[in-house]
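Q: Structure for this?
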Amino acid sequence: MGQLTRNPIAIGMLALVLAILAAATFAIVPETQQAVVLRLNNPVRLVNQWQPGQMIGNTGAGVIARVPFIDKIVWVDKRVLDADLDNTLVLSTDQLRLNVDAYARFRIVDPLKAVTSTGSTSNTEERVADQLRPLLGTALRNELGKVPFAVLLSPERGAVMDAIQNSLQGSARQYGAEIVDVRIKHADLPDGSPLDSALQRMRTARQQEANTIRAQGQKQAQIVRAEADAQAARIYAEAFSKDADFYDFYRAMQSYRHTFGADGNQQPEGSTNIIMSPNNGYLRAFEGGGR
Amino acid sequence: MTILRRWLRRPIILAADNNNGPWGGGGDDSAGPRNPWSVPPGGRRGASKPTALDEFLKKTRVGGGGGGGGRPQLPLGTSARTLWLIGVGLLVAIWLLLTSIHQIGPQQRGVVTYFGKYSGMLEPGIRVTLPAPIVNVTKVDVEQVRTDEFPQDGGETVLTGDQNIIDLAYTVRWRVSDPRNYVFEIKDPQETVRATAESAMRAVLATTRMNDAIGAGRGLIEARVTQTMQQILDSYQAGVRVQGVSIKQASPPAALVDDFNAVTAAQQEAVGNLNNARSYSQQVIARAQGEASAFDQVYAQYRLAPEVTRRRMYYETMEAVLAKTDKTIVETPGVTPYLPLDRARKLVEPTQGTSTAPAAPAQGGQR
């Protein structure tokens, strides 16, 4: 009875032992990981190390065997990783401060170096990123500190990025990493006086623009009026120059009618009294009617 | 055969269990139909409990009890083992089912790894592969267009090329173009796309003037950001296709809205001024044309009979003018005319009602 009941347990135990042994012997290396095999802390081989131009599906990934309980596998990520740097204060040559968020994309190309240089057998990629982050900050401050502020906002900024990448590349190599790309995510003016003064500058620029537009509008209007006046003068001159003498008379008659309110338009502003002498041309007939 | 027999004997064990306790029996009775999937616990119980029960029975029943106890022993032992096997078998079957049959949606692709190594791609449909530790399938949404909003919270200010600040909000649409690269080349691809978008947007805006950014240049900026993002992502071999970038909002900072409105107002004002000038211009020219034309008409008549027309016009004008005015005719030469005082007052203050009343008789007198 005891034998029978113990039997499945024995089978289970055996299966367990086999499973543990298998798990300790075989390991699956996925495409995303590189493996450093340490034999009693002595690196013996690298599996699935990143190679330039390697096609996925054609790499060293797969099942590997190791000596159980003696070989230890340290996993290092094979993918493009990210070291993020937030809120780094950078001073440009023209003493303008800028708040910069940047990132470096890197890949661990030498996993053994990554493991040995960080002295860690776990989370190696994170430790490498931790090491790279201050280096990125230093490179950023150095390179951005060499250029005036305006360059950061110009096409030359690509060249600045390249310079940062180059300067970081050297130190990254010590950690077995290769910098794929360095980029500025944000570049903002710090809160407080730099931001305020920028806003103030924008405000005055707007005011200037508004005033300019207004003045230009007035200028245009003036030109249009003057052109109209000139054209009217030309029209008058063309018509009236046919007989200047008659025009003088004609216009005088019009003017009288207008001045004395006789053209029916409106009452003249001042009332009019006329004191006439009989010598007046109009009254000549009046006086001499008897003659 | 043996399995079948053991199955048939199960009710006996259950019956023995029933006698043992009220809940145990009730539970087992109702659990009868569910047994196939709750076998592992049942099996364990079969292995341990009945033996304990057996011993209990042995102790309580005397004599015949020994034979009665002896009979169930054998089936109990074998059925326990069987249940074990069935349980394990079922687990294996479930595990096989779960890990070797894959339902790939129409928008998805399955990235297959064979012992960790990439071996191929599964197209949509129900696909069967080898089970889990050997083959792993990662499903990736390929056709689905993902939309990322920037910024995620609140407003975002961006510096433009002319060192101005604008408030910006935009969305990026992207999808996976190469699931293999997407899965294997980049750690945290979504975050990578976000970071790339931010960096590309700022790089492009850093070469754009503010007026273009908040005005007509948006389309160009969107196209350039899309292109820049694609270049960067391709350099990472991210396996991502950027479908498009759309700027939802690009406006001057909230603090400067009034000043930007003032510019707009100035523009309106300028246009208004110009309109006024144009209308003046129309008036002046029309009047000139009208007067010139009137003169021409009169002049044409005047040419026909100059002297008579001239005199006629003179008299008509004088008539019209003098009819409207107060007249004083000084008959004798050498008499000095004088103006009455009330009249002078009226001339000084023509609008005052009080002075007009006394002036009236004077006027009459003059006439």
